[in-house]
Amino acid sequence: MAKFAANLSIMFNEVPFNERFKRAANAGFKGIEYLFPYEESEEKLSELLRKYQLTQVLFNMPAGDWDSGDRGMACLPGREKAFADGVHKALKYALALDCKQVHAMAGKWDRLFTQEQQRECYITNIQYAADVMAEYNIKILIEPINIRDMPDYFLTTQNQAEELLRAINRQNVFIQLDLYHCQIMEGDLLRTIERLWGRFSHIQIASVPYRHEPDNGEINYFWLFKKLDEKGYQGWIGCEYYPAGCTEEGLGWLVKAQS
After folding, report:
1. pTM higher than 0.90 for the full model?
2. Among all residues, which ones are annotated catalytic?
3. Alpha-carbon distance 18 to 255, whole Å?
4. Torsion over CA of 19, 43, 92 and 94, rounded to 10 degrees?
5. Distance separating alpha carbons of residues 24 and 27, to the nearest angstrom
6. Is the previous residue joined to 151 through a cis bond, with omega within 30 degrees of 0?
7. How open is the CA angle 210-23-239, to the nearest 5 degrees?
8. Distance between CA 170 and CA 129 in Å, rounded?
9. How many Å is the Cα radius of gyration of the chain?
10. Any idea what DSSP says for residue 188?
11. pLDDT tens, residue by residue, 90-136
12. CB 146 within 8 A of CB 95
């Protein structure tokens, strides 16, 4: 049966961040993820995980100046030191929170550089992150993100991610398979899951097109959950969606999925 992780960056946002751990646990989630942990101390976050018996499934490495438009630094020549500093900061949190996978956001295309320069920068940076994390048995995840939600993002399709995985050539680098982004960019979700089997270690879900609860929209998630069970998927499924209303009132899908 699938294991679901609540994304606390966008779920349960009726209450302050630290209160969302309790709300997620009370709603039946066993795992949590979020974008960034860095505004809180590792000690505080670890305490919340222990208190509510939650698993820290995933978080992002530092992604640059988010408010100024940064969406990662991995593909940006000239920012290698900032990226490397972010790797070590993320490692510190991952060890404290016993988190076994960290997402490295790619960043956006920059016309100051050629596409090949940015590709080579990305490969080198992800290799560095993977080598640092490998000593601690931590995975680095790369995620294609759709061009509607994040214009000019470097990594947008599963085919591109597959090609980059081959070039990166590290055993602890995997795809973060967000089915919301994949449906928008490519569709054919089951065949994509089958083709990528063994090359992704985390799945995320949201309805398409509105990114709400997964029991709405054009994707039949319950059918996909069944197929994932049949194939023996052992990873987590992150619920990275914006609740259409109060978070708890929209969780009927979770009850159905776990029954």
Report:
1. yes
2. 143, 240
3. 24
4. -50
5. 5
6. no
7. 35
8. 10
9. 17
10. -
11. 999 999 999 999 999 999 999 999 999 999 999 999 999 999 999 99
12. no
